[in-house]
Design a protein that fits this description.
This protein is mainly alpha-helical and about 100 residues long. The protein is built from six helices and no strands. Helix 1 crosses helix 4.
């Protein structure tokens, strides 16, 4: 859900930044595949609701958000489609919370 929200925000910002380009038939979550822009600006505020969404499922919201941000930045930069398989593999490759907390 958060990845789609981030892609939707990016798409809406791209739509506003390129008003002469007809994006009316494109879902906001796919506009990044055609138009480009500054990735940091496109993702500004994209993770603001992460605590509310992820909080009930993990004690390490920040680490999950870092992973999601890394993934979505890669999508925006490469204009590749979102892949649940790739995202799942990336999330599963994160070290367990115990190892993250032990290093902090």
């Amino acid at each position: 859900m958060l990845v789609y929200r981030a892609l939707e925000r990016a798409g809406n910002r791209l739509k506003n930044a390129h008003p002469k380009y007809d994006t009316s038939k494109m879902p906001a979550t796919e506009i990044y595949r055609t138009l480009g822009g500054d990735v940091s600006s496109l993702l500004a505020g994209a993770w603001d609701c992460a605590d509310e969404v992820l909080g009930p499922y993990t004690n390490d919201v920040n680490s999950v958000v870092e992973t999601l941000d890394f993934y979505v930045r890669g999508l925006l930069a490469s204009q590749r489609p979102h892949s649940a398989v790739v995202l799942g593999a990336l999330l599963n490759s994160r070290p367990p919370l115990e190892l993250i907390t032990a290093k902090a």
